[in-house]
Amino acid sequence: MAGLCQSWSLFLHLVFPPLQIFPGLIYDCRETVTLVLSTLRSRVLSSDAISKTAKMKLFSAGALRAFFGLFDWKGPGGLKYD
Description:
globular, 82 residues, 5 helices
C-alpha cells in the first residue's frame, strides 16, 4: 500500500503541479477555473485512494498561497501582453 501512495503522490505532482497551475488560473475563464477546482476536489481531496500525506504534500504552504491568489481572479481580460 505504501508504494501505491508514493506513486499517487508522484502522479499528482506531475499532473497537478500546484505552484505552476494556480497562479495562471487567475487569467483563465470562469469555466476553466471551475473545472480545475472541481476536479481537484472530486478526484484528489475526496479520494480515499490518495493518502492524507500525499494530499498534504500536494497542497503545501506555497501551493495554498498561490491557490488563495484566486480570490484576486481577473479573468481572461486581466492578462497584459507586452
